[in-house]
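User: Could you check the structure of this?
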Amino acid sequence: MKALFLLLAGVALSISGMAQVIKVRQPVEPIIDSIVYQTENVTLIFERSNLRDYMVSMDTTLRNAKYSNKVFNSVQFTRLNAIDMGNHFRKAYCYLEDTTNKDFSYSTGRMNMLWAEDGGIMLPYVEEILPDLLAAGTVRVIDRSTKALQPAYKMIAEPIDGNNYRVFRLNSGREIFRESTFRVEQLTKR
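Assistant: Sure, the predicted structure tokens are below.
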């Protein structure tokens, strides 16, 4: 009986140790030029400059990789050939660089087309960088039910087919963002 109790205590301790608490770094200056990403449970806000920096670095990376869709982890790019990948990236890059474009508000409840003529063209790139920004604590997380800015949240590893994906949760346990949703082909059983 004692061995069973120690085993259960060990399992409970290991499960609680798997979650990493991330404290949000409060920006010195208010966010003026932001991107808003809304899920069922939270609203995420981060600097447009984060996306711009990512796109600038990916410009060189994509050229060096001959516009291979394998450079990105997004499931939306898996069916694009090198020409389409290059065209999509350049179109998205031009949209981001045009300062007159202000449509950078996304919602998981709204469908966006991959080749959209509006800010929807940026969505795969936003979903590509969100896990890294969340892990760094540079995203403002607002709980939609309480409208409160969250000072911290949890990151948990989710193993799928030998790869670890990150799941971000509020301290209440409600999901913020699940990386595997945008990086793993979902299998349907027939």
